[in-house]
Amino acid sequence: MISKQFFSERLRALRKTGGETQKQVGEAIGIGERHYQKFEGGDNFPSTENLCALADHYKVSIDYLLGRTDNPEVNH
Predict the structure, then answer these.
(1) Domains of the chain
(2) Is 12:21 a contact under the CB 8 Å cutoff?
(3) What DSSP character marks residue 21?
(4) Calpha distance 30→66 (Å, rounded)
(5) What secondary structure letter does DSSP report for 3?
(6) Over the stretch 57-68, which tens digit does the pLDDT of each residue have?
(7) pLDDT digit string (tens) for 10-65?
């Protein structure tokens, strides 16, 4: 089972590593800042569309975002 807390922590770490604000990431994937904040806060889990957008934005695999692997590389 996917842990919302793990997901939100990984998402926050990726954003901070990239030096972005929550607003910047939200805008980059086409959602509002508050919507994005709920992902990081563990209040909401992204739709499949937003999950894909987040993975693309951070250039990591969805499995990495979800904690199924510690390897962030995308396998094509």
Answers:
(1) 4-66 (1.10.260.40)
(2) no
(3) -
(4) 20
(5) -
(6) 999 999 999 988
(7) 999 999 999 999 999 999 999 999 999 999 999 999 999 999 999 999 999 999 99
